[in-house]
């Protein structure tokens, strides 16, 4: 079970991990918040691996479930109306992805998220830790150095950052988390490189719709909180016009 959560990036990361596993020829199911029932697949299909997107709502009702590989992308304020407008309750819900893990399991997380770093010692983590970061820094086992993606554990892996299909800092994090997950699953390096370079992305998430008279139109309508919108804008390289709404 490879389980992914986070305030932002979980659907893209889930889809990317599934793409890598599928491209490597593994018998893998895709389930959870992404729209496919895990229970139905377990009852009617026989997969060797499951890649599961988990929202905080789903994690709230997780008691005996165990993630062999747990991925926590980030934690920023979201859905606080469900948690009595208490950020700590939301944080605790996200960290439920690590409960029931053993020393044989893996916990992958963003090393520079201040909330995650603050909470690490509070949750009795037993799994092996695999932190990732944008650049080489203390503690991180995956990062970019001199334009090259480096994953140092459990098996050394590298590829040129410019070869990644997904662009922008936030998508670098998604690619690093997916690469570590595939590495832990024992997928061969050449399959990981190819899948990270030919992934087509996810609808409504920095989705390139069309280019008209030199103007590129990008659909990022799934950016429903401040942080996800900020990351999308940060990834733009030219003059940008933002159209947004909501309340």
From TrEMBL:
NCBIfam families: murD
Gene Ontology BP terms: cell division; peptidoglycan biosynthetic process; regulation of cell shape
GO MF assignments: ATP binding; UDP-N-acetylmuramoylalanine-D-glutamate ligase activity
SUPFAM superfamilies hit by this protein: MurD-like peptide ligases, catalytic domain (SSF53623), MurD-like peptide ligases, peptide-binding domain (SSF53244)
Main location: cytoplasm
Pathway: Cell wall biogenesis; peptidoglycan biosynthesis
Boundaries of every Mur ligase central domain copy: 4-180
Protein name: UDP-N-acetylmuramoylalanine-D-glutamate ligase
Taxonomic placement: unclassified sequences, metagenomes, organismal metagenomes
Signal sequence segment: none
Gene Ontology CC: one annotated term: cytoplasm
PANTHER family: UDP-N-ACETYLMURAMOYLALANINE--D-GLUTAMATE LIGASE (PTHR43692:SF1)
Keywords: ATP-binding, Cytoplasm, Ligase, Nucleotide-binding
Gene3D superfamilies per the UniProt record, alphabetical: Mur ligase, C-terminal domain (3.90.190.20), Mur-like, catalytic domain (3.40.1190.10)
Cellular localization per UniProt: Cytoplasm
